[in-house]
Amino acid sequence: MTNNLDTLATALYATTDDLLKERPDLAPWRPTVGITPRLTDAEPVTLAMMQAMLGFTSEARWLRHARAHLRHLSPYLPQQSGYNKRLRKAAELLRRVTRVLATSTSAWSDDVWIVDSTPVECGRSRETVKRSDLAGWAQYGYCASHSRFFWGLRLHLVCTLQGLPVTFALTGAKADERETLLDLFAAESHLVSTRPGQTLIGDRNHYGRIFEEELAQQGIRLLRPTRKGERQRPGGSLFKPLRQVIESVNETLKGQLDLEQHRGRTPRGVIARIMQRILALTTVIWHNDHTGQDTLRSLTSYDH
User: Which residues contact 19 (CB under 8 A, 6 or more apart)?
Assistant: First the structure.
């Protein structure tokens, strides 16, 4: 099979359409009486993935490009306001499709996970902070990896060694990474209850006796760097090369999928646009896995 954006989009559309036929309750709600949409529910999902893959952070520019080059995939394209509304309403569907794709890959059964958080900047000027609808959720925070302050959110991501997203959360910039991780596992307890002996690799922020005991009760073994004043922890020689995986995944989300150029201005808008990028990453890994590619997290065949 030829690996290009057309085949990727077709595969995602067919999978999403089949899912909606089996589970029509997953489709965004709409009144039973009214104008029948000219765009099926699977099409915004596919268009959202393609927009992220091709690096269009402006919806207006993306729709102009799609009208000029992608009519063979989507004969009807809405105006910018219509596309924006459909994208925001489809945020939960994006999440469900992402999970369906992830669970059908060989990487889903990996017994090693990596966890980290990365900044999602939402504004820079003081006026933006004062007027933004994100105020109260977005906060001022500090990114130690890049030695910078920012105003916005944090994406907390648990992924496999191949970079496949397992679970994630968007929180304020000051949210405690340990509490967020425990909340994630509590919200989706089946993720860990069916995986006894799972290994989790974290950074120095994932520390604390009580925290590690709570993970151990769920059958999770935590590996992290030794903090100053501690005895040398086991697995230290293996930590550094494995730790680079999450940094590489974050770079894929930020450098290739423009995570911080999301342009979301409302909570629903930000959530939809972050989901859009996680879906794009998952779709690539899913498609590469099913087509027998050597490197699962390679976007090169699809980003042009």
Answer: 26, 96, 97, 100
- Give the ranges where 90-189 is alpha helix by DSSP (H): 91-103, 126-131, 177-187
Rounded to 5 degrees, what angle do the CA atoms 275, 113, 240 make? 115
- Single-letter code of the amino acid located at 100: V
Q: What does the alpha-carbon distance between residue 132 and residue 114 come to, in Å, rounded to a whole number?
A: 33
Residue 58 sits at φ, ψ, to 5 deg, of: -100, 125
Place of tokens 């916005």: 152
CA distances to 120, 121, 135, 145 from 173, in Å: 8, 9, 12, 14
Radius of gyration of the chain, Cα coordinates, nearest whole angstrom: 20
pLDDT in tens, 151-207: 999 999 999 999 999 999 999 999 999 999 999 999 999 999 888 889 999 888 899
Beta bridge partners of 172: 153
28 exposed, middle or buried (CB, 10 Å; 0-12, 13-18, 19+)? middle
What pTM does this model have? 0.94
Complete DSSP assignment for 206-257: S--HHHHHHHHHTTEEEE-PPPTTSPPPTTHHHHHHHHHHHHHHHHIIIIIS
| CB-CB contact of 65 with 56 (8 Å) | yes
- The closest alpha carbon to 117, from 184, 217, 50, 49, belongs to 184
d(CA 203, CA 222): 10
The pLDDT of residue 1 is above 60: no
What domains lie within the chain, and their CATH numbers?
Answer: 110-262 (3.30.420.10)
Is there a contact between 6 and 73 (Cβ–Cβ < 8 Å)?
yes
